[in-house]
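@here heads up, posting the sequence + SMILES for the zinc ion run so it's all in one place. Ping me if the SMILES looks off, I pulled it from an old spreadsheet.
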Amino acid sequence: MATCTDQHRYWVFFEQLPDDQGGIGRHKCCGCAYEKGYRAGIIHGEILNINLDSLHESQAGTVRHKSPHATYAQGYLDGVKASYR
Ligand SMILES: [Zn+2]
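bot reply: prediction finished. Complex structure tokens:
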């Protein structure tokens, strides 16, 4: 999978989310995971699939070693919240 070059790798709020110190998620781009979750949330998607293999790789910025599961879930929640505004 390609390496992510998106600016979301540097979003500061990722710093408060859990680290993933092992496993397949460790080197995935959590910015991509967040945005995928957000897109699912804003349309109230009911079948959620993180599909780690679909995410770009990244070891840069604030997403480094963060949990893609946690960032996907945060993105989903933020998307649902945004849908009610
Ligand atoms: Zn990304």
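MO: The longest helix spans residues 68-83.
MO: One more: The mean pLDDT is 93.
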